[in-house]
Design brief:
2 copies of one chain form a homodimer. Chain A is built from 10 helices and 14 strands. Chain A is α/β, with parallel strands linked by helices and 327 residues long. Chain A has a 5-stranded mixed β-sheet, sandwiched between helices. Chain A has a 3-stranded antiparallel β-sheet with strand order 10-7-11, with no helix packed on it. In chain A, strands 1-2 form a two-stranded antiparallel sheet. Chains A and B meet through helix 4 of A and helix 4 of B. The structure holds a DNA duplex (30 and 30 nucleotides).
DNA sequence: CGGCAGCCACAACCAGACGTTGTGTGGGTA
DNA sequence: TACCCACACAACGTCTGGTTGTGGCTGCCG
């Protein structure tokens, strides 16, 4: 199936005759005739009833028409996703299941007209910053444990999401029915977070959290996927894991897992939006305004939150977006 | 953009190198190289980083990949929609807003794996039967005011949907807060159904209904679309219209329209499924079973319903599906 | 350190696809 | 009956897109 033939088919269906479709496509009537004949031969079906007064769609043609339109629509989107200069807003998230992805989904619902491409570079902060600087992505959500003066000049970094944590436990766990839990309380329990590779930002964060409150965070064990992890936790009276408040999982209700907020202090994983100051993409402005208008920053007073050491050094808390917030 | 090039791109992305992709596509490595080079030139973007050990996707390539997959998926669906022998189940409905379309939507949700094409032939019963007989569509929903013995031999007709009626009124209408309304009560009110062209099955039905209960059904007036009709009714203290119970409209909540069931007797618009007995399409069986399992037939006792004259002559009520129901 | 293996790009060549011009056919119309 | 209109068929030239053959680059290993 040839996309040009499909486009020609749509043009002919809209025009009601090959002649006009040919004019619209700036080709000859004979070329239209051949293209559609080729498409019909390819699909092994007749799409038009030719008459001396034009061409009417057959029933098969009527059926094919919406699919054909969809096809060229998708092709246009695919094209727009990468073509330089007019491509969709491309935002890098560290994982498709964590808060930035959820926030972007929210953004997409709020602005369905804006073409958005969410990519996962699988890169650390520095590589992400380099990608933004190179223009490969328009923006990236990341924890940025780097002082602003060490960043490239064109790069802007603003803390936009404060992710709280919930304890995820099964119904038999002693904390299953707690309204909230303090980090100090967690010291008595084993927390299991398999697949937290050492050296990553996440591992650093949980190492620091564990050290600060004397927690036992277990990162060993093979990774069988979230499904297996959740099933295991649901069954266990001892195992628990930490999850970002906005984290989405494949979450079969049958597991009956409980989310218990961690508070007093509330450990926060602060994430920033990274972008180039001179990126002219109009949707980038919309995204920043959206982040500003949603309450993605914590409402808990500073005295009642816990941040990693770098959490306070990156950018000033709640910076005015206009000034870019690079301190 | 060439679909073959897109397919090649996906194959190369999956394989991680052009060589293997070429083998998978039964072409030479050079052809793969050329196709992807052509695609890159077309999109004006580099999709792969070529290395002596293979080819890795660039960020643009990563972004393009899901769009590419979607594109070939849509192309496959478009192909499957018409290709003889393996095409999607094609069902004709008289209108996309009436009960059969709603029921089909329900069917699609119940069996998302089944490819379904809903078409609107804009044909009367006889043309629809001819289309089914010719195999142009697999099935058609229609009111069938024809005795079965006058139908072609291969055609099966089973009454599957009994559509009740609601009165649609604005908040100022005297019947706005009624729990139900009888046809006799409606005689005192003006009912407006613009766009009911004379000679159609619907017009015949409402003519007969009007005659049976002495109603005033007004079919004159220009048709400005449902939107305008609903707005007009919402504003009026006198106007009302009849709508099938399962009818969907563009229905802005702000209109505050009320649906009042018509009962005692309940006028029913009976619709049948028409199909060819020898149609081997497996999804057709699923559709018939689905219709059988849902309560699309009325639960109101026969004594409390009103049917048009032809309503009882078409097929026996609640025929066992196994025997086809052509009486 | 040099040869080798693996992978991709470039060049030359050829077949076939595709568009053009020119012409034929059929049905409705003046 | 002659004409008009719309599409199909035929012939021809161009150019796309495939193949084979070859070269360059890089990493590995003897």
């Amino acid at each position: 199936m040839d996309l040009d033939a499909v486009r020609t088919f749509v043009a002919a269906a809209d025009a009601g005759q090959f002649q006009d479709a040919a004019a619209a496509l700036s080709i000859t009537q004979q070329a239209v005739s051949k293209r559609i004949a080729a498409l019909e031969k390819d699909l092994e079906v007749r799409l038009f009833n030719r008459t001396p007064r034009g061409a009417q769609l057959t029933i098969d043609g009527q059926t094919f028409l919406p699919h054909a339109r969809e096809l060229i629509r998708v092709a246009a989107r695919a094209d727009a996703s990468v073509r330089p200069g007019r491509r969709a807003l491309r935002v890098d998230v560290h994982s498709r299941r964590t808060a930035p992805a959820v926030v972007l989904h929210d953004f997409h619902r709020a602005y369905p007209r804006i073409d958005l491409d969410v990519v996962t570079l699988d890169a650390d902060v520095h590589a992400a910053i380099a990608a933004v600087e190179a223009g490969a992505v328009d923006a990236s959500f990341h924890a940025v444990p780097v002082r602003a003066r060490h960043l490239p000049a064109a790069i802007r970094v603003v803390r936009v999401i404060d992710e709280h944590h919930d304890l995820l436990v099964g119904p038999r766990h002693p904390l299953a029915n707690a309204r909230a839990v303090t980090p100090a309380q967690l010291a008595a329990h084993r927390i299991w977070m398999p697949g937290m590779a050492p050296g990553t930002e996440w591992a650093d964060y949980y190492d620091e959290l564990a050290a600060a409150f004397g927690l036992t965070i277990d990162v060993v064990g093979p990774v069988f996927g979230n499904e297996a992890l959740l099933a295991e936790i649901a069954d266990s009276a001892h195992l628990a894991t930490l999850a970002g408040e906005r984290t989405r999982y494949l979450w079969p209700d049958s597991y009956d897992l409980r989310r218990v907020p961690v508070r007093d202090p509330a450990p926060i994983y602060p994430m920033s939006l990274i972008w180039r100051d001179d990126n002219p993409h109009p949707a980038l402005v919309a995204l920043r305004e959206h982040l500003d208008s949603r309450h993605t920053r914590t409402r808990i007073p500073d005295a009642e939150v816990w941040l990693p050491r770098w959490g306070n050094t990156t950018v000033p808390p709640r910076p005015p977006m206009e000034r870019g917030g690079t301190t």
